[in-house]
Amino acid sequence: MPAMEDTLFQLRFCTKQLERESKRCEKEHALNKAKIKKALQQGNVEGARIYGENAIRKRNESLNFLRMAARVDGVSSRIKSAMAMKQVTKDMGPAGLPP
Question: Which H, E and C letters describe 17-64, residue by residue?
């Protein structure tokens, strides 16, 4: 059953990738918040508004990446438990059946 194990590996890899993307978006969100403060101190209200929109967008992207990572992780867990159940059933074999 190497194909299922490969799929499981790919799902785990995908989860980690999505979590990394989420962290990257969080950093960009923090960077945009700092730019907002700087723009407001300089009296650049329009620039601050643009940075604010970007910060909100990055925050939403981060949350969406986290949601997707959680969904993929859930699928990965279900596949892993199904593989384990299949193995247990196979190991039990015909022992549970009457002759």
Answer: HHHHHHHHHHHHHHHHHHHHHHHHHCCCHHHHHHHHHHHHHHHHHHHH
Residue 57 structure tokens = 């967008």
DSSP 99: -
Q: What tokens were used for 54?
A: 């970007």
Residue 28 makes CB contacts below 8 A (sequence gap 6+) with 54, 58
Tens digit of pLDDT for each residue in 4-16? 889 999 999 999 9
Euclidean distance between CA atoms 52 and 9, whole angstroms:
38
**Helix (H) and strand (E) counts for the chain?**
2, 0
For residue 88, pLDDT beyond 90: no
